[in-house]
Amino acid sequence: MTNLGHFDSDFYQSNYTIDNQEQSGNDSDVHDYAYGSSGRQQACEQPWPASSVPPELLSPSGYTGQFFQPASDPDYYSQSPYVDSFDEEPPLLEELGINFDHIWQKTLTVLNPLKPADGSIMNETDLTGPILFCLALGATLLMAGKVQFGYVYGMSAIGCIGIHGLLNLMSSSGVSYGCVASVLGYCLLPMVFLSSCAIFFSLQGTIGTVLALVIVSWCSLSASKIFISALAMEGQQLLIAYPCALLYGLFALLTVF
Mean pLDDT, the chain, as a whole number? Predict the structure, then answer.
């Protein structure tokens, strides 16, 4: 053990101490402060020799474009199929099946029973006008003191089912339920006039009965005219007008009484 301790003391003997280390560190800092900063400043301020710079960097470049702004290619956009996609899209209301021009034409066709109907327009499933006219009929009946919204919707649904089955038996091409509901709903507009008259005076009399008969005839003739033009059923208008008159007669009874 004594030999090992003697060996350790001999191994760690050195003339270098901590004080010498701190002194040498301070001397190096002083040397850097005195000479290093000024030397670095002179090195930064010293210009590059002209011989060490490549000549292509000193001469103006022949590139005339814009950096980070690549020129657009008009041929690419002209050939792209997505450029005019938004312009060719139909309006939102038309995609939803709401066409105000067709609604106005159908309304005018109903208001004028003698006007010929356009079969291409009438053979559409447009329920915007029928829903509005059903709401108007229920609202006018409510203003007359009759809460009959359930009867209006119930008789409309049952009547559309009956007329739909009858037209499919009579026509060779057939018809959809939406088309039947659309036509019968548009032809309900004259009945709204009758219910509006019930707001101001009572229809339970001779005037009311005559007015109700006129309105029922008006509605049935308009509906039969539209059906024969849309389904190409020439010569069968009276056969179609009879069941339509029975349906609209129920609405007239609901309005008068």
Answer: 76
CA distance 225 to 186: 12
Q: Give the C-alpha separation, 228 to 244, whole Å.
A: 13
> If you average pLDDT over residues 121-127, what whole number do you get?
75
Q: How long a stretch of residues is the chain?
A: 257
Residues 58-89: pLDDT tens digits?
555 555 555 555 555 555 555 555 545 556 67
Q: E strands within 55-202?
A: none
- CA 184 to each of CA 180, 201, 242: distance values in angstroms, whole numbers, following the listed order: 6, 27, 13
Among candidates 137, 150, 139, which has minimal Cα distance to 219? 137
Q: Give, to the nearest 10 degrees, the angle between helix 100-111 and helix 128-143.
A: 60
Is pTM beyond 0.90? Reply is no
What DSSP element (H or E) covers 153? helix 149-170
Q: Which of 183, 184, 251, 181 lies closest to 216, judged by CA?
A: 251
